[in-house]
Amino acid sequence: MIQARAVIVATGTRPRVPDIAGLSSLPDGSVIYGVAGAKEILSAADSIMIIGGGEAAFDYALSCAVRFNLKVTLLIRSQQPRARGWLRDKVLSSSTIRVVTGMQVTSVSHTSHGVQAIIEPSLKKPYISSSYSKNKSNTPVTVLHADVILPATGRIPELPEISVPDGSNLESLSCLHIIGDARLGSLGQATAAAGEGLLAAMEVSRCLNSE
What is residue 197's predicted lDDT score, i.e. its pLDDT? Predict the structure, then answer.
């Protein structure tokens, strides 16, 4: 057991695993939750499916297309992605990234063609960008295949189990500070998280000096 007069919890977040049938049964190397640390897997692949419409999903899509020369399919459940600005424009204009909006993945499985995803419309008028393929039609796709699938559907706090004295709660412990993504889920900005860290350090100093 480690004892301390003050504790700062800055454990960050972990990927949110979407509720998709068959996802947990995919073999190792078929599903990843980020580009960092997956160089070997991505270098051996030809194609990837990315689920999500936020900044992270678009960043992953661009990295996979540019750094690893992969054919990318970006599946977005809503009609419009949340990503904005330069990143969004770059992805939508890419000739190797197919963007599908208004579609949701209902199940995945592993076949001789890699990962197979069954997708269904989540909106009345799904959209499929035509730059990826010669097929200019917007006919809803129902089955997609790729070597790897990457869910980018958000992150949740990576909080450790913390035992507190009987009758107490976390908020009542003045020298315990849960900061950054561990507290808010995802700040999305390193500078904001660093600012919270500095404030927590100042509070800890005040707490210790007052004892």
Answer: 81
Q: What pLDDT is stored for residue 210 in this prediction?
A: 78
161 phi, psi to nearest 5 deg: -75, 125
Residue the block writes with tokens 């900061």: 179
Residue 89, pLDDT score: 92
Q: How far apart are CA 129 and CA 62, in angstroms?
A: 15
Q: What is the pLDDT of residues 157-203, one digit of tens each?
A: 887 766 666 555 555 566 777 777 777 666 556 677 778 788 888 88
Fold type of domain 17-151: FAD/NAD(P)-binding domain (3.50.50)
- Cα distances from 163 to residues 12, 179, 184, in angstroms, run 19, 18, 20
Q: What b/e string do you get for 88-104 counting C-beta neighbours within 10 Å, with b at 16 or more?
A: bebbeebebbbbbbbbb
Alpha helices in 52-189 (DSSP H): 55-66, 85-92, 181-184
The whole-number pLDDT of residue 187 equals 55
| Cα 47 to Cα 157: distance, rounded to the nearest angstrom | 30
The kind and range of the H/E element at 71 are strand 71-76
Rg, the chain, Cα only: 21
* All structural domains of the chain with their residue ranges: 7-13+157-210, 17-151
- The rounded percent of the chain whose pLDDT value lies above 70 is 79
Residue type, 155: R
